[in-house]
Amino acid sequence: MVALAALAALVLLAVSTDPARGGWVASPDVAGGLVVGSAVACLLASLFLLWKGWRGALAEIALTGLAFGVLSVLTGVYGAALIARAEPLAGFTMAVAVPIGAVGLLPVMGPRSRRPWLRHLGHRWRAWVVLGLVLIPVVVGALVGAQDLGLLPDASGWTQRALVAVNVLAVAALVARQARLHLVGRGAVTGVALVALAWLGVAMVVGLTAPTWSPAWWAAHGVQAASVLVAVGAGLVLALRNRTLAATIAPLIAGDPIGALELGLRPEIHAFVAALDRKDQITRDHVVRVSALALRVGERAGLAPRRLRALGLGALLHDVGKLVIPSDILTKPGKLTAEEYSVIKGHPARGAALLACDPELAAVAPLVRGHHERHDGHGYPDGLAGDEIPLEVAIISVVDAWDAMTNDRQYRAGRSGDRARAVLEEGAGTQWDPGAVELVLAELDRPSLRRGLEEVGRRASAPGLICPEALPAGWGELEVGAGSLEG
């Protein structure tokens, strides 16, 4: 609400058409000095990100540093142009700063893009960084030279409208992508980034259209600086709270819903995964991998952000019912007896019951309950078939089987990818939904460099069990957040 109020205030200020009169308010020296000062601060933060990314081979971080560095340098040129009273240079530089800076992020989309030239850039991001560093002074020199030769267009009339349109399109694309990430993750970091981008977009338009020295002009400049500092500052704050820069910032600028989901996970979810880790590390690692791959498949299927979030949570918690399975059955190295297998088959319903008391998790409980249903209706616990099984459940079921087959279990070694693929193809239409199998296999054919929720549950607190009444009769309290597990 505070962010929306700030945006509304800025828009209202934008209707003011009377420039402020007199004193320092109309001073190019003061305005230029403030702009240059904020640009230097942003440039130092950008160079820090660039250095961390280059040193740690973190492409997303280095490219973010490059993009913010370009934006900071061009903002500094704009401030210097204000001081020098070079109005064409000031107006044109302000208008092109965001679009040119955004070009620095192109290789971020490369490794998972279907476009060959983008994949080429993504795998050669270091060369892109070096090229960007070389071209920054060239671009600045070209802008200054064009100013001296009188070649820069006056930022008014159709030129102004064209530059405003370019900025609106660039920022709108970034805001739309960030809104999608926030709907998937619902975390504070993605929310802050969304607000910062919205601020930047509105401020850029106001700054390009408001009369110079008007209240709206000053407000736009202040909000532009604040948006960049907020975006960078949010990442740095989390980095100081024992999060790596890669885990903190990469999802925000790589458009990665996997990282966005991790950033927004509630303590209770971390605690469930931590409890699985203590119960059986193989199960914990399995659910983490299943969630990451299921999210990638959900993206391929074009699921809306809310459905994508539910898919990720459902996949991450699909085996939470195994918390109430006795350990001697869950980790048995040999073949299960019929009675033991019957106990194991109860884990989908148990897992759904453990989530039913929480409003958000209750919405994904059906995904947990249904992940062992079969397309032909011979699954459990409800015997659903065909279209009765939602796409999210069908995806989790296929990914669950793939990961189980290709990784070691207590009772057998993992199979080869080719053999697991053959099993999925053979079972398409009977055990698994054919469309879900096709989506999963297609995603497995595409190399992915994404991180996969590796830190979930590693530093979990102990909020307690969400639905204690779901425990089997005779059980004591199930310690979800800390300590040992009964059974």
Question: How would a crystallographer describe the biggest sheet?
Answer: none
What's the pLDDT, averaged over the residues? 77
> If helices are DSSP runs of H or I spanning 4 or more residues, what is the number of helices?
21
| Secondary-structure element string | HHHHHHHHHHHHHHHHHHHHH
Q: Distance between termini?
A: 47 Å
Shape annotation: elongated
Task: Supply Rg.
Answer: 27 Å
Task: Provide the β-strand percentage band.
Answer: under 5%
Structure description:
With 487 residues, this protein is an all-alpha fold. Helix content is 67%, strand content 0%. The protein is built from 21 helices and no strands. It has helices spanning 2-14, 28-55, 59-83, 87-103, 116-123, 125-148, 157-185, 188-209, 215-240, 245-254, 257-263, 267-279, 281-300, 305-316, 327-330, 338-344, 347-355, 359-370, 391-406, 417-427, 434-444. The longest helix has 29 residues, at 157-185. The protein is elongated. The two termini are 47 Å apart. Residues 20-24, 241-246, 248-254 and 474-487 have low confidence and may be disordered.
Keywords:
487 residues; mainly alpha; 21 helices; disordered C terminus
Short summary of the structure?
The chain is mainly alpha-helical and 487 residues long.
